[in-house]
Amino acid sequence: MIKEETYPSVLDNVYQAARRLKNVVVRTPLAINNNLSGIYGAKISFKREDLQQVRSYKIRGAYNKMAVMSLKILRKAWFVPVQETMPREWLLPAIP
């Protein structure tokens, strides 16, 4: 069980991450899915994260993690491209 005093620090982390991501990601809309809404008799929407520049919500977590890493750690880090069009064996240094 999470202690009550934990909440302010967790909320602060969320606000800090939002500030870091402000100029990196775009706010994406919700799109109503008429087919599923009709089947289930409810208004069903999907968040359109495919409209992000990298076509994924994953940019939020990846960028936020890198933004708080030290330069020393980033210089040692390698990032593997995951797009289907790129060879899996390619490795990219985070900072040359």
What would you call the shape?
Answer: elongated
The major β-sheet equals: 2 strands, antiparallel
Taken as a percent bin, the fraction of beta residues is 5-15%
Fraction of residues in helix: 40-55%
Over all CA atoms, what is the radius of gyration?
18 Å
Average residue-wise pLDDT: 77
Name the structural class.
alpha+beta
Count of alpha and pi helical runs: 4
Uncertain regions spanning at least 5 consecutive residues: 86-91
**First and last CA, distance:** 43 Å
Q: Tell me the number of strands.
A: 4
Strand order of the largest sheet: 1-2
N-to-C SSE series? Answer: HEHEHHEE
Account of the protein in words:
The strands form two sheets. This protein has a two-stranded antiparallel ribbon. Strands 3-4 form a two-stranded antiparallel ribbon. The protein is built from four helices and four strands; from the N terminus they run H-E-H-E-H-H-E-E. It has helices at residues 6-21, 34-40, 58-67, 71-76, and strands at residues 30-32, 45-47, 78-79, 92-93. It is α+β, with helices and mostly antiparallel strands. Mean pLDDT is 77; it is low at 86-91.
